[in-house]
Design brief:
Elements lengths: L2 H13 L7 H7 L4 E5 L2 E4 L4 E4 L2 H4 L8 H13 L12 H13 L6 E5 L2 H18 L7 E5 L8 H6 L15 E4 L4 H4 L6 H19 L4 E6 L15 H11 L4 E4 L13 H4 L6 E4 L11 E5 L1 H14 L12 H16 L2 H19 L5 E7 L2 E6 L15 H11 L2 E2 L1 E3 L2 E4 L7 H22 L1
Parallel strand pairs: 3-13, 5-6, 5-7, 7-8, 8-9
Antiparallel strand pairs: 1-2, 2-3, 4-10, 9-10, 11-12, 12-15, 14-15
Helix pairs in contact: 4-13, 5-13, 6-12, 9-10, 14-16, 15-16
The protein binds 4'-deoxy-4'-aminopyridoxal-5'-phosphate.
4'-deoxy-4'-aminopyridoxal-5'-phosphate (PMP) binds next to helix 6.
InterPro entries: Aminotrans_3, Aminotrans_3_PPA_site, PyrdxlP-dep_Trfase, PyrdxlP-dep_Trfase_major, PyrdxlP-dep_Trfase_small
Organism: Tranquillimonas alkanivorans
Protein name: Adenosylmethionine-8-amino-7-oxononanoate aminotransferase
Length: 454
């Protein structure tokens, strides 16, 4: 290893904490310090390149060197490099982006609130709901329903929404955040249960939960159309069609967390379009700026927008907001990103590549140690199993998915281990040739690791 790279690794380890990093992996392997990118590739301080099959963290959908996005940022920095959205002021870019977001949203009208991240957007949503419920005389309407395995972020509230056991190390979730069963038929379905029966059971569980807790204590049901960081889990057949009427009947808003799915990942602009349901609000981030600026948005449809507006008028203020909410550079980049995704062929490319992506996943799933492939649009996962017939996972101490991901890295491919699955979430600009390269490298890694552990 060249001295220079060693220095970079030592410097990274000495002064920076990592988020969500498997420590044994970096203890053995060191840090990859990345310096720049080209298309879907990133380059490290050793001059090695990696095909990033995870689009960074699902967000760099236009690749790592999109000139138009960089120019939009530069132009706005030159024009007006920063402003807030407090005290009755906001930038022209913010105004234009809100108009655009409502235009491309599934809502005929609505309103937008900006944050710096997806986590803060979920936090903001919950504060909005608590605020408007209190203003409407329902201070007890506070509980939030989500699902096990869901990922909604890392702030105290969005961690509580997240249905992952790892949050126990923080003493979370907070009380009042309830996690229903993950609608993953392959893993959660019982012996002899059809997929339709499974979906009906998910709906019954929701009914029972509402009956037990009391509809008037529940502020919202929040769901990702396809669960992302839970391991790319599309809902069971008919899931949203089964739960939406129950929520409507009880007056419980359905919120679509589209931080990953939004802006094309599933082949439609919104995941809720792909799955044919109509949420009351959308949480957006990531592809919202193609990853070129940290930004999130809460997009309220007409009912919640009106209720919030009335609540704000009652006390004549919504005491919430971030310094960089609606940052003009972020908004200018987002306007450009939306144009690039919707009008310059990125969404078309997602649709064109999806059959090749699915075929590649299906082919690798023929491996006796892959139990299931799943996905939608350009997000997919392969789940490793010790025994395909019984769906028995590998012993967790073997860290099979981490080993596969590390071996991929050795072959110049970045993909992500999630539980016992390997997740692929390529950028929308990927070519067919790059997709073939991705599957070839992954296949090599799978064969290598399964030969070691089988
Ligand atoms: N919601 C979903 C569905 C996500 O996937 C994520 C991030 N992966 C978040 C919320 C949190 O977003 P952020 O990391 O920007 O806070």
């Amino acid at each position: 290893m060249p001295d220079d790279a060693k220095t970079w690794e030592a410097r990274a380890a000495a002064h920076s904490f990592y988020g969500f990093t498997d420590l044994p992996s970096i203890r053995d392997r060191g840090t990859v310090v990345v310096t720049h990118g080209e298309g879907p590739y990133v380059f490290d301080t050793n001059g090695r390149n990696y095909l990033d099959a995870n689009s960074g963290l699902w967000n760099m959908v236009a690749g790592f060197d999109h000139k138009g996005l960089a120019e939009a940022a530069k132009a706005q920095y030159d024009r007006f490099p920063g402003y807030h959205a407090f005290f009755g002021r906001m930038s022209d870019q913010t105004v234009m982006l809100s108009e655009k977001l409502i235009e491309v949203s599934p809502f005929e009208r609505g309103k937008v609130f900006y944050t710096n991240s997806g986590s803060e957007a979920n936090d903001t949503l919950v504060k909005m709901l608590w605020f408007l419920n209190r203003a409407e005389g329902n201070p007890q309407r506070t509980k939030i329903l989500t699902r096990k395995n869901a990922y909604h972020g890392v702030t105290v509230v969005s961690s509580s929404m997240t249905g992952k056991p790892y949050n126990e190390v923080f003493g979370l979730p907070l009380p009042g955040f309830l996690h229903l069963t993950c609608p993953h038929y392959w893993r959660e379905g019982q012996a002899g249960e059809t997929e339709a029966d499974f979906t009906a059971r998910m709906a019954r569980e929701l009914e029972d939960t509402i009956a037990r807790e009391g509809a008037d204590t529940i502020a919202a049901f929040v769901a990702e159309p396809v669960m992302g960081a839970g391991g790319v889990i599309p809902p069971s057949e008919g899931y949203f069609q089964a739960i939406q009427p129950i929520l409507r009947r009880h007056g419980i808003p359905l919120i679509s967390d589209e931080v990953i799915c939004g802006f094309g990942r599933t082949g439609q602009v919104w995941g809720c379009d792909t799955y044919g349901f109509r949420p009351d609000a959308i949480i957006s981030s990531k592809a919202l700026t193609a990853g070129y600026f940290p930004m999130g948005a809460v997009i309220l449809g007409p009912t919640l927008a009106d209720r919030l507006q009335n609540a704000v008028e009652a006390i004549e203020e919504f005491p919430h907001g971030f310094t960089a909410s609606g940052h003009p550079v972020g908004c200018a980049i987002s306007l450009k990103a939306i144009e690039v995704i919707l009008n310059e062929g990125l969404l078309d490319n997602v649709r064109a590549l999806t059959p090749r992506f699915e075929a590649g996943l299906a082919r690798l799933a023929e491996n006796p140690n892959i139990g299931e492939w799943r996905g939608r649009g350009l997000m997919g996962a392969l789940e490793a199993v010790k025994d395909k017939d019984t769906k028995t996972p590998f012993d967790s101490h073997l860290s099979v998915s981490e080993r596969i991901a590390n071996t991929c890295t050795d072959h110049g491919l970045i993909c992500r281990p999630l539980g016992q699955s390997i997740v692929l979430c390529p950028p929308f600009i990927m070519t067919e040739g790059q997709m073939d390269e991705m599957f070839e490298k992954l296949e090599t890694a799978l064969n290598q690791v399964f030969a070691e552990v089988a």
